Amino acid sequence: MIRFFSIVLLFWLAASSSAYGQRINSKKAKKFYKEAYTHYGYRDHKKALSWAFKALEKDSLHVNTLILLTDIYNIQGDFDEELKVYRTLLRIDSIDLRSHVNTGQIYLNTGDFAKAVKKYKYLKKATWLPERYVKVVGDKLERSEAALYLVSNPKEFNPERLGSGVNSEDDEYWPFLTADGRKLYFTRSNVDTSQGKAFKDEDIFSSSHKPTSYQNALVLPKHINTAENEGGSCITQDGKTMFFTVCKLKGGCDIYTTQWDGSKWNLPRKLKSPINTPYGEKQPSLSYDGKTLFFTSNRPGGSGGMDIWVSRMNKDSAWANPVNLGSKVNTPRDEQSPFIHADNQTLYFSSEGHLGLGRGDFFVIRLNGKAEAQNLGFPLNDQEMQLGIYIDLEGQYGYYASVDPNLETGLDIYRFTLPEDVKPNPLKIVHGRVIDGATGKALGGAGIKVYNLAKNTHVVSYTTHKDGGFKFGLPAKTQFAIIAEAEGYIPYSINSSVEAVTPNDPIEIALWPLKKGGSFTMENIFFDFDSSALKTQSYPEIAFLAEFLTQNETIAIEIGGHTDNVGDAAYNQQLSEQRAKSVLKALEKNMNTDLSKRVSIKGYGAEKPIADNNTEEGRQLNRRTEVRIIEVN
What we know:
With 633 residues, the protein is α+β, with helices and mostly antiparallel strands. Helix content is 25%, strand content 29%. The chain contains 11 helices and 31 strands. The strands form 8 sheets. It has a 4-stranded antiparallel β-sheet, with no helix packed on it. Helix 3 packs antiparallel against helix 4 (63-76) and helix 9 packs across helix 10. The radius of gyration is 32 Å and the shape is elongated. The relative contact order is 0.07.
């Protein structure tokens, strides 16, 4: 975790100097102090300390020198030494406000929340506390009490440091896994001396996950990682689009995007207005369908500092004007690290403004709920800064960056088990592999298209790996059409509500070569009861069939309607034929052409069952619309 040092308030320095003025009585101490202050101004803290110690040799109670020491120790994060100096200052003046308040802040910085509560309670009751500081002290007391409560009620937490394939002696942070969990992207910061001067350079790396560990991380190519700082990446579920942050060395951050062409990431482009502005935009996070973008910005119109904003993609695939997430998420202080889970409702983020243990605790909020943001708890959150969070599809594990004080490796990436009360909404996890039905061999590069049936929209397209594998998550309470396809093969249709799609068991999809006599069931064609009228949820699969015919111009098909054996056989045959005709009409309307020479229809009634008509499950399978290949030229 990144240590954050409290900033000394200059107006308190002036007030304290005035109160201590009578003690400045050594000319040599004053001279040495001026030397120390000059080097401090140039940020040469080593020389500043050297001259400050010389000043204190001449006058051990030289107040301005002691105040300067507190500033330097604070910047260096040496809170023990800073606290010693404040104790000296309080022996000089027991009611010095600056020393009291900053002593309390040191207790907060070091996680000694009980002492912080005690200190701020003392100040709150102090009769000499100026009226203008009552709110400041009250705010710090509230934060100290909230932190003490969190520490007193810890959550089970067993972080696991990722191996040497990911973590190094440099800093690693901003973890992001692809939806299938096969690859981890992250940011690494190292010292670059190629320009003749040492500076921190941030680049994006990736590490492939094998059965037991992450492989040695590889830096992304130079057209992604430039001389500027790159990091904070996220990738769409289909693995084809990456969004990431570029921060210029001269200042200012913007969001960029790049496309995967099947073998490499293409040349990135900077997002246009209204996403990027002359202000700062960074840390993008995408919804499961890639159509909602969350990010942080200090643009006008926010609550103050860095706020989290959201933009949704228009019908023309352009990003709409971003909207501030409002006071339930944003505060006058900084909010960062947004991560929207694939459930499209659960947002994780870090905040300096919400009550917690330190600078940048992780919080979670349900965007469709009324509850306030919830602290993820101690010890995941502590008195230092947390950086970057990712939650996997299942909501089982989280990933974040942290510092182990027992190691000298800086920020490293850890995995932890997510507590039940902060897990996202359950998803329907669709995973498995696509094979050639004739040979049983894996079909790498096969396409899987997902449609939201309620909204009649295409959600995502996925391409299988070389081993035919795929994995993605869908909101559990929404019905989707899932269609697998590959060039030269007959497509395969699934409905996300069927038993074959379960969170735990992988599914195997067999695609059969495109040849005469082959067939597939259109699982997402729906009719009203005892009617041939198509329901609107059928349109995505009609559109896919139209696309299939367009891509395979030399084939002819038969659309066959099938029923179960309940009722009159003649009536069932007539109903099945009318339903097949309805599918043909919808197909011709979609393609805006006469298909009489390529598409025939037939109503089979209950003649060709594929399951037992004696059970409801069997009868449901028998009620179907089937496409059969009758000619391939």
